[in-house]
Prior knowledge:
With 351 residues, the chain is mainly alpha-helical. The protein folds into three domains: 49-112, Dna Ligase, domain 1 (2-Layer Sandwich); 118-197, no CATH class; 212-346, no CATH class. The protein has 15 helices and six strands. The longest helix is centred in the N-terminal third of the chain and has 29 residues, at 11-39.
Amino acid sequence: MPVKEPRKLSFKAKTAIAFAVLIIFILGFTAFNYYLKFFGPNVNGNEKYLFVNTGAGFSEVYQTIRDKNIVADTTTFLWAAQNMEYPGKVKPGRYRLRKGMSNRNLINMLKAGNQEPVKIAFQNVRLKETLAGMVSKKLETDSVSIINLLDSAKYVEKMGFDTNSVYAMFIPNSYEIYWNTSAEQFMGRMHDEYEKFWTNDRKAKATRINLNPIQVSILASIVDAEALHDNEMPIIAGLYLNRYKKGIRLEADPTVIFANNDFTIRRVLNKHLRKESPYNTYLYKGLPPGPILMPSIKAIDAVLNYSEHNYIYMCAKEDFSGYHAFASTLQQHLVNARKFQQALNERNIKK
């Protein structure tokens, strides 16, 4: 029986098949190219964060990405950004970059404004300028903007403070805040934290000692400056409350140091005591007009939960342990003071 030869494809059929294969190849290549542009890795990991300034447009963002070599292929990023309509939806912020991110993931993050907050922690800061400088290093806002608000009597009055007492508003802690937070927003956040901190229980304790929250913070700043050891804080707080209630000048050395604006002083001398300043508690009775540093939470709570005793005098111990010798009488205090002064002389500490 004769074997039939296979039918040969016509030229037209061969052409159609070849064309179909070409179309499939083109579609596959296009799909693969499309995939790479949107879903393929492009962020190269040269930078940890992308900062988009307030008011910046897409051209500034694109320029930053190019200048800092944030993506491997800027052309595909530009193409993806335009196709995803990002140029009209730029949001400021600090955006966390991860190596291997795709254009799609990067642009979706930027469009949504899904930035990573910064952590700001502060405690025992003496001066407003120092605080403003610390904050401005973490946020987009500059230190001058913060200082201007702190020094604006009209602005801080709205929050219940004056320009001296406003420092009491800052509760030392660690906070998460978005990088593009403005100076006004930062102040508002700190005021909210202040309101949360001063619970009904803390306010009730302040009332029982006839002080308001601001006065508690002012006294706590002195306690904080005096106490090297936390377990002495309630005793020191009780001592100053005894003096305050009796109408005796507080005569706190840290207030003199603050008044002289010289934080290198190790030995307070008569010339320092004569410094004319409302912060000098050797010259003026009562509390100074504002905190001499940002009081810690431990110091504030030490004032609210002070130790009851009869001490009205204190002096650093001569062993330089950081602890104090407390006294109820001037006679005993003078004995303690002579011991400490002799120890200073022996160590040649003159100022």
